[in-house]
Amino acid sequence: MLPVITLIGRPNVGKSTLFNRLTRTRDALVADFPGLTRDRQYGIGRIGPRPYVIVDTGGIGSAAEGIEALMERQVQRAVEEADHLLFMVDTRDGCTPEDVDIARRLRRLGKPITLVVNKSDTMDPTLAVTDFHRLGLGDPWAASATQGLGIRGLIDHVFEQL
Ligand code: GDP
Ligand code: MG
């Protein structure tokens, strides 16, 4: 069974963009992957030596449901099947109250988490991550899903913790 890496985060932080980049090499949808349910997007990818399953939790629920319930369901599903969580934030927004709330919930899960500070192409990567140390999830990882910055290192980092 391949390791399952799950993307978590507010709308518009770049989850689907990162999903597409991480699955580009083997753009397979695996809706029937054993043991996985259907309301998320699954893909198989490989960057570096080993393949993985990547899960995009975006789009769960409806707009009417509200951000609170949406996040609750994302987190709940992540508990069920993820081997590693990628919690994505947007450096342009800085650390928002929703980010703080999601971080609090994720810390309780006891799963390995990497905090990914996306859109780091829009400013100095060192500055991009500074606001996010206070989430208490360890060293934030600067990345750019659109430019491909920090992605290979991120995947290597994930595999080191599996
Ligand atoms: P999601 O709602 O979390 O899935 O976010 P999307 O992947 O749909 O991205 C939301 C917007 O952010 C889109 O306009 C993307 O092109 C943009 N975006 C995503 N990643 C990056 C990035 O690394 N840098 C910049 N500058 N924009 C990004
Ligand atoms: Mg999305």
UniProtKB/TrEMBL annotation:
Residues that coordinate or bind GTP 1: 9-16, 56-60, 118-121
Domain EngA-type G: 3-162
Family the UniProt entry places it in: Belongs to the TRAFAC class TrmE-Era-EngA-EngB-Septin-like GTPase superfamily. EngA (Der) GTPase family.
UniProt function note: GTPase that plays an essential role in the late steps of ribosome biogenesis.
Assembly and oligomerization: Associates with the 50S ribosomal subunit.
Name of the protein: GTPase Der
Organism: Allochromatium tepidum
Taxonomic lineage: Bacteria, Pseudomonadati, Pseudomonadota, Gammaproteobacteria, Chromatiales
Shown stretch of the complete protein: 1 to 162 of 467
